[in-house]
Design goal:
Blueprint: E1 2-3, E2 6-7, E3 21-22, H1 32-36, H2 47-62, E4 71-77, H3 80-91, E5 97-102, H4 105-117, E6 120-125, H5 134-143, E7 149-153, E8 155-156, E9 161-162, H6 165-174, E10 178-182, E11 201-205, E12 216-222, H7 223-228, H8 240-250, H9 259-275, H10 277-298, E13 314-318, H11 327-336, E14 339-340, E15 342-343, E16 351-355, H12 362-379, H13 388-394
Parallel strand pairs: 3-14, 5-6, 5-7, 7-10, 10-11
Antiparallel strand pairs: 1-2, 4-12, 8-9, 11-12, 13-16, 15-16
Helix pairs in contact: 2-9, 3-4, 5-6, 9-10, 10-12, 11-12
Amino acid sequence: MLAGNQIVTAPFDEPALGEPYLLTPGPLTTSYAVKQAMLRDWGSWDGDFRAMTAELRRHLLSLTGDTKDEFDCVPMQGSGTFAVEAMLGSLLPRDSKTLVLVNGAYGQRIVQTLDYLGRAHSVIDKGDYMPPRGLEVAAALDADPAITHVIIVHCETSSGILNPVHEISEAVYAKGRKLLIDSMSAFGAISLDVNEIRYEAMVSSANKCIEGVPGFGFIIARKSELEAAKGRSHSLSLDVHAQWAHLNKTGQWRYTPPTHVVAAFLVALRQHEIEGGVAGRGGRYAHNRDVVVAGMRELGFETLLKEHWLSPIIVTFFNPAHPNFAFDRFYGLMKDKGFIIYPGKLTVVDSFRVGCIGRMDEHVMRRVVNAAGESLREMGVDTAAPPATAIAERAKLAA
């Protein structure tokens, strides 16, 4: 219902086992119905489970807006990083060269993966959080005709920045190159409609914005790219073409699938649909972000990013300058109050992160703020204002 211009919702149920809320970018807090779905065993070869896999693939494809049947979905066992490596090792030709856009830990991990794979690459490194921009990508592509692909992290959760993928896509295709997107922490809450943003493939994971549990990732790619990937992979188990071909031929995963995780994910997908799909899920997360950011600012905390760049996935806050503040103690006090926050990943200033995703709503986020205020008082910290160096760092990012 509405109260003035504010959305007011009934609170979600508390975690049934009394566990803390996970204010992290995944794994995250899941619904009890998702957890319950893992209580039944499934035969991976059985027709019922094959039907579950088919439903999973169809439903994920529907989130992309692909009405021309140009894409397909390939689930891949393992963590999100497994799926990213599978995409890179299968969809990048061995004689390709990839421009990696780096502004955080996950872009750096892509560079590390390409090093392992022996795939040629160059890097635009923007540091801890500065966003890559279309003009500099276009300039890099003009300067190096050997570059065939560009890859970007959609939401770089090491800072919480939502990178400008639409702008990057336009720059990439204007120069006749191909784009891959690591949308690990954004897909399902931030639109990646193929009719609006052009890309060859994207990758995400079960335990992010769909609100499933860890166990598999998935690659959504153009069928033409999947067909071209035959025999290209460096790995037996991470061969996306082989997995795709086997799924289409038999309905089965090539090797033992995480059956319980798939069952849970189907429940999560149905809850996602009931909530209003990508727009509904993203709207709740954005409201979570707005509530926690406003409340934390009232306590004196400051965000690393200005409003324009804040994602609805996770928010980075500067550590207070107060001499009594120690993050390890703050973390412990927050956990005692039922909330697990994330340490920062910045190298330039001290920080921590608060996730906005998972089975949480505005009521939970207000409790997060109250817990933070209580924790500061217990530490003898009367203001959460950051050091001047942190504010100077933030000023480097234009609105």
